[in-house]
Amino acid sequence: MITRREFMHGSIAATGGLLLAIGVEETAFAEGAIAERVGARGVFGAYVEIAPDGTVYVTCPQSEMGQGIHDGLPKILADELGADWSRIAVRLPTGDDAFINPTTKRHRTANSESTIIYFDVMRKAGASAREMLVAAAAAAWAVPAAEIGVTNGRLEHRSSGRSAGFGEFAAAAARLPVPTTPTLKPANEFTLIGRSTLRKDTPAKVDGSALFGIDVHFPDMEFAALRRSSAVTSKLVRFSRESAVKQRGVRDAFAITDGVAVIADSTWHAMRAAAAMDAEFDETAASSVVSEAIRTRMLAALDDERATVSRPAFGGAPYDRAATQAAIAAAPVKHEWVYEVPFLAHAALEPLCATAIVRPDSCEVWAPAQQPDRCRDAMAQITGLPRAACQINITFLGGGFGRKWEVDFVRQAVEIAKQRPGRPIKLTWTREQDFAHDRYRPAHIVRTRAGTDRDGRILAMHSRTTGISMWKYQGRALPPGMADPFASGLLINDRYDFPNKVVDYVETPDPIPVGTWRSVTQSMNGFFSESAIDDLAYATRQDPLALRLALTAKDERANGLLKLVAEKAGWGTKLPRGRGRGRGIAYTFGFDSYCAQVIEVTVKKNVVKVDRIVAAFDCGMVVDPRNVEAQVEGGIVWGLSAALNGRMSFANGAAVERNFDTGPILRLHEMPRIEVHVVRSTAKPGGAGEASVPPVASALAGAIQMATGKRPRRLPIVDAGYTIA
Known about the structure:
Radius of gyration: 27 Å
Strand order of the largest sheet: 10-11-8-18-15-16-17
Strand content: 15-25%
Helix content: 25-40%
Number of strands: 28
Mean pLDDT: 92
Structural class: alpha+beta
Shape: globular
CATH architecture of the largest domain: 2-Layer Sandwich
CATH superfamily of the largest domain: Aldehyde oxidase/xanthine dehydrogenase, molybdopterin binding domain
Low-confidence stretches: 1-15, 21-45
Number of helices: 21
């Protein structure tokens, strides 16, 4: 059985030590509450605990979904602390308010922001712990604190020859005031930041001891599965409890908000009974959900002049639609293209799952969740308990990609557990339910119009996008006349320097649930914006790289990155093997990071083989180069899989693709060679997990265009008549 103490903090807390977090006063997290929960003495917060044996336990505030944040953030803290990296142990987070970021006022893992928003927080936590240890040692040794050095987990007073490990002074340090403005190291004194190390979570993930949501187990656990309609939206009309409970291993069945819950002795028994039970749903509200009808409505919306104007992504003067349209009308040469992307599923390998226990005075959940604060809000709403009585423990995530940003599966587990008070209830979705009831990346269609002079200089560009509003679906309000930023943001790359640009948006509502998908708005708008630049290059007989270099001449980082990727990929050199070979290039900026890619393909008889992908990446200061490379590679694989095969289509109100057989992901034999070149920089850290996704589709389309003379403007590539080698 997993106890709360084992899950959160192991057994060392009871032995005494230093437990520290920065920003306690900002989060209003009570010392007594932490002390009661973990049994520790001298508690200041939540981030770092130093045991008497010198082991430093760092609780990472962010969810670990494979991105390596359980190495990155502890490494930042450990560097400032002066710790021995081999003595660092990393703990999974809980949903405690102590982990709310003091800047964003949220506790979430999304938008590639973990390093961005916690870089200073973790540095401050490490530096404060260091200064407290030094102060404790200085008092014990009766020497000035300024004379004590901290290196590799030890405190040293060189003139007297005294030294001690962190553990010797941990308890004394815990009783000292937490510095409000600790002195931070200059970057040239970093010993861990910027250096690659073996990931702390690798051994546990290799030997199977890592705790994912699907692994949570209690001896008295009951298992739940759902019976839901296959339609994207529906209402339960009736169900037969008797048809479920007569099945082997079934204990109960009852209605919940999203369908019928079946409780059984195992997940397998619950799923079998849920599938076999007699139930009826009203699917009328989903009757309009038919892919071709949706596409027809979106194409018609491109001519709707009631479109709302987007705001520039990076500030500056508001877009002037009238001036841009006039500039295009007056331009000597006019251009127009239409681009399309489909709905996409997240399809994380770990199914949606959550374990909940509801008691009269508390509610506790174990789940692979990206947004603990929203989970706790939902738990309190369902149970009627105070938020402080609701606790979520975050496990490892077997993939998130934005799907586990949603809290529907946690809400369902709590709603079910409420009907079985005191019992741990583990809810697991089927793979088919994951596909059928996803929060899909919305389909979008974009029309881009541009005007150039006869020398190919861009005079104006107008892009109009249409699709379902993710912003509205999440219940967010927009000021009158403002475009959905999820739909229109970064549709025109504001890092490109050309005059008269405008983006506007026409909402085309449909009852399809939508949500954030890895790289959010950029996943689609990177394809649209970079495809337009490529199309302009070919239409004006310019080299695609040369045009981008001209447009980024005032942005040193972007321009340098394009030159780097061109050099590494051999842009402009002859491709081997002659006919059917092509290269494409694309560049995007997002998540405070720059990414440029060159893709090489071979196309023979409409069979596309992706041969090579070269990426250059600038995310500012790099915490762990090898992990950044891995994240860039992972983003490329994700983007390539979607560009080649990814789609969700709908018929009769339900998703057509229901599992990996009909919604395939990239297989190992389809993988190209990937090269990643990470720029070392002293700039402020940016995100790495998502920034490499957006350029992929456009660079791929550009490579096919060079190889065949035809550019695919509608994704996925297989829908343009190609097959994948």
